[in-house]
Amino acid sequence: MKFDNPRPETQVNHPPEIETPEDNRPLNLPIYQNVKWQTDSVDESLRVLRGERAGFFYSRVGNPSVRQLELLLAQLQGRSSCLASASGVNAIAQCLLSLTSAGDHIVFFIEGYSPTRQIIRKLLARFGVTHTMLSIEDLPALERELAARPTRLVFFESPTNPVNKIADIAAITRLARQHGALTVLDNTAAGFHQHGQFDVDVFIHSLTKFTTGAGDVMGGAVIADESIIAPMRADYALLGAQLDALSASLMVRGMKTYFVRYRTQSAAALQIANFLEAHPAVSKVRYPGLESHAHAALARAQMSDFGTVITFDLRAGFEAGRTFAESLHLFARTPSFGSTESLVVPPQMMQPRDFSPAELLVSEIGPGTVRLSIGLEDPLDLQTDLSRSLELAAR
User: Fold this and answer.
1) Which has the closest alpha carbon to 96: 63, 62, 131?
2) Residue 159 domain-assigned (yes or no)
3) Which residue among 255, 279, 313 closes a domain?
């Protein structure tokens, strides 16, 4: 029933509704910058809440703009469902909290993202979740650990952040499945189009990296089949870190150029990795596309594109890394990767604070370790910039 002749104070809170004809659709989904939805009756709203019909109720639980992004990412990764959240670290934390209980055990690896270690070693440990940290290259140790005690999750990365080690995904998933453990792969560096062919239970991505490529929004995603995602939905709603509609819309828009960006940047990264490998100021380059990479054959078997991150060691060491980074003109001195602009992380920003000497040795992060993220600048310009800075760092 229409309310006739509302006063101005009422009109501004109930603006006219706009309906588009059925055959007159927008090319892009409108941004649903909205928190609340209603239906024509209380009973229908209750059906939405119970999941008995399609619809939305509250954006902390679901939003059409976010849902479009989730469906797109799930399709690309070859799974049926996805949950998007406010950051990549949040996706890791919410996934681990949802999939574990007190008394559970996690196996993870030294060669990986520092916040992941902190979540497992500090946050989860406070709630009675135990862990074992191994090397991603030590499959016999993984097999022994899985055989020795019941394990809930095996959490790993490939390529690893920051030194680009390559996990044997088929072997890890096979061992985990044999012993009843779920596998969780942080697939951020490999992108949304790789590794879906493997028997991985859960994929995690930092959407901050490759969705827009512009470094202008933050987000994270957990991707899996609906049988795994469904029990996690209630936890996600309670923890309240849903991705916002505007960010989701920007990510959907950015994904239209994802393959162009990822493949162009990967090709440039390989070119620059070859350049660095031949430079006398550099002692070691770690890039999965190089023939010299310790796991080059495995990388070629698992990946079609080798990513945008290059890690290398300066012969002159720690302070040379400072000179090198501060001499660059085309590389921003900042963390993250996947941006259209190139980035550098010098040794001063790379050193782990939570490793024992033995763990530091396994990590292969040395006093002269530098990480580059290659953007969309001309590779020859990047090489010129790198060459000048390497010469200054070697003095």
Assistant:
1) 131
2) yes
3) 255
When comparing pLDDT for 147 and 11, which is higher?
147
Report CA dihedral (74, 76, 78, 79) to the nearest 10 degrees: 0
232's CB contacts (< 8 A; 6+ apart) are 83, 94, 95, 98, 99, 222
Q: Alpha-carbon distance 178 to 173, whole Å?
A: 9
Spatial distance between the Cα atoms of 20 and 26, rounded to a whole number of angstroms: 9
CATH code, domain with 100: 3.40.640.10
Check if the beta carbon of residue 248 is closer than 8 Å to that of residue 84. Answer: yes
The domain tally of the chain equals 2
Domain assignment present for 33: no
In degrees rounded to 5, what are phi and psi of residue 83? -125, 120
CA angle at 341 for the pair 338 and 343, rounded to the nearest 5°: 75
Same domain, 314 and 377: yes
Distance CA 80, CA 49 (A): 21
Domain boundary (197, 225, 255) is at 255
Has residue 19 got a pLDDT over 90?
A: no
204 and 277 together in one domain: no
Whole-number pLDDT of residue 14: 86
Give tens-digit pLDDT for 153-165.
999 999 999 999 9
Contact 260, 103 (CB under 8 A): no
CA distance 364 to 347: 12
Q: Is the dihedral of CA 139, 142, 148, 153 positive or negative?
A: negative
The whole-number pLDDT of residue 1 equals: 64
187 near 39, Cβ under 8 Å?
Answer: no
Instruction: For 270-350, list the strands marked E by DSSP.
Output: 282-286, 309-314, 331-333, 342-345
11 pLDDT exceeds 90?
no
CA distance 122 to 206: 21
Peptide bond into 162 cis (omega under 30): yes
- Domain span at 352: 258-393
Helix (H, G, I), strand (E, B), or coil: what is residue 223? strand
112 and 65 both lie in a single domain: yes
From the CB of residue 339, how many other CB atoms can be counted at a distance below 10 Å? 24
